[in-house]
Each structure stands twice: as C-alpha cells, then as structure tokens.
Q: What sequence folds into this?
C-alpha cells in the first residue's frame, strides 16, 4: 500500500508556539483524524502540508513527491474543505463551477453538476442564502470534481446538524473505496472520527501524543472504575490518567500492563484524548 502523505520530523516555531517533530503517515485508501484541543497545532500542520506556511525543518511528501518538488499537475489532486467558506456569497453554484473550471485543468463539470444535483444545491440561489451544511457540501462538490486523490478537511463537520454530518461522512467513505484516495480531517466531533477513520493522530501543545490505527487504540486502552482507593491498587505503569468524582475514581489504563482480576470497560477515542490531556497537564 502506497502512502499519499508523509510527514517526517517536521518543525515550525512561532513566537509563542512550537510545532515539534511531527511525524505520521497516511496510506492510500484510508482516513486519518487529527484530534487535539484548540491551539494544539492541527491547523498549522494543514497549512504546512498545503504550503501556506513554510516549515523550519523536516520533510513533507505528498503523492510521492517532496512538497517543494510537487508539480502543479499533482497539486491539483489535493482537494480542500475549510471551516471558513472561501467563495463569494453573491455567486451561485454554477458560477463557482465556471471559476473552478478555469483553475483546474482536470475539472469535470459533469461530475460537479451531478454532485450539485445530489446535494440539492440550486443555481437559482446565491450562496449567501445557503445553510452552513449546503456551503460545506458545495466545497466537497468542488473538491471531488477535479480528480482529487487527497482530501484535506479542517473542521468540515463543525456546526452541522446530524443528518448533514452523516451525508458528508458517507461521501468520504465513498471517496476512499478505490483505495487510491485518502482523507486527512480534523474535527472536535470525535464521534464522527470514530465512525469513519482508520487512523487517529492526537496533537497536544504542538507535539504528537500518538498516531495509531483506531482499532488498535480501542484494543490497547480501557477504563477501570472503582472506589476512591481504587487507583492505589493499580500498577503505576498501567495507568495513563485518573479522574476523581464524588462516587470514586476511574482510570484510563493500558490493557496489556494491567494484571488479571480487574474489570475493564471499553474506552472511546474521546476518553483516550481526555485522559492523556489530564496526564500531560498533571
């Protein structure tokens, strides 16, 4: 399986923030979710990948090319969906298609029109009358109409109703079916990522905490609950983080390091993120 995106020891320093030693790989035919609190560095990583900011060191490879050597023909195979709407709101969707056809050599207007019909995007309405969900679908229609191989989505499902989010997630799963395309997406809606992602990369304060297969994360971690003295009975090396409440304690644990005899419940990706964050702050 080839890799559509590779970051190796990427660093970027700002006045009050550092992105440090960012390393992960996105194989073809997969979806990776970037998670982390606000300001963790997710958007900076995407800007570095897109060449909107310059890295200080390290290597970024896209579609088999070093970022600095990526031909224009290959850049056109990157589809982008942003939380902020990029098109003039006085346009209609047909006019957006006309502009995009001048930008992308591989633009397929028939594909674009089919997506507009599928998403019920009327060219009789100007874009300022579109709901947030419709605007997001228009961005996806554009991204999928110029033979993109790599989709990059920054908070694309944020603020959408559950039905609109489900439609977008279904479309992403369709996109990777031929196993030659991949998606890198950030989202604060962890349940969306759990539905569709093959890999999860957790960024905390500019560093990668982990970048692993989603199913392995579920196998590696679990939740143990008990009274207020419960964590004292756990081996320290098995405990990722502890949460206390008025009824007792609960801990995120590495299953492999936990002795037999403890009752372990499944841990969600959100659990793993929260407990790791508490551990880092502690």
A:
């Amino acid at each position: 399986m080839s890799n559509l995106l590779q970051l190796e020891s990427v660093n970027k320093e700002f006045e009050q923030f550092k992105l440090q030693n960012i390393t992960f790989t996105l194989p073809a035919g997969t979806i990776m979710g970037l998670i982390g609190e606000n300001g963790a560095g997710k958007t900076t990583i995407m800007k570095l990948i897109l060449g909107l900011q310059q890295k200080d060191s390290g290597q970024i490879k896209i579609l088999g090319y070093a970022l600095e050597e990526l031909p224009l023909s290959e850049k056109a195979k990157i589809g982008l969906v942003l939380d902020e709407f990029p098109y003039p709101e006085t346009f209609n969707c047909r006019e957006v298609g006309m502009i995009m056809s001048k930008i992308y050599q591989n633009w397929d207007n028939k594909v674009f029109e089919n997506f507009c019909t599928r998403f019920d995007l009327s060219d009789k309405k100007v874009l300022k009358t579109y709901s947030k969900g419709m605007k997001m679908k228009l961005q996806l229609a554009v991204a999928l109409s110029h033979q993109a191989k790599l989709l990059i989505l920054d908070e694309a499902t944020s603020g959408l109703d559950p039905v609109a989010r489900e439609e977008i997630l279904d479309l992403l799963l369709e996109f990777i079916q031929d196993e030659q395309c991949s998606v890198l997406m950030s989202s604060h809606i962890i349940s969306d990522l759990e539905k569709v992602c093959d890999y999860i990369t957790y960024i905390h304060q500019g560093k990668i905490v982990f970048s692993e297969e989603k199913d392995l994360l579920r196998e590696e971690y679990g939740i143990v609950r008990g009274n207020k003295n419960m964590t004292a009975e756990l081996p320290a090396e098995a405990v990722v983080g502890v949460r206390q409440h008025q009824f007792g304690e609960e801990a995120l644990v590495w299953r492999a390091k936990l002795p037999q005899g403890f009752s372990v419940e499944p841990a969600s990706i959100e659990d793993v993120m929260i407990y790791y964050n508490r551990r880092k702050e502690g």
Remarks:
- The chain is about 30% helix and 30% strand.
- The longest strand covers residues 3-13.
- The first helix runs from residue 42 to 49.
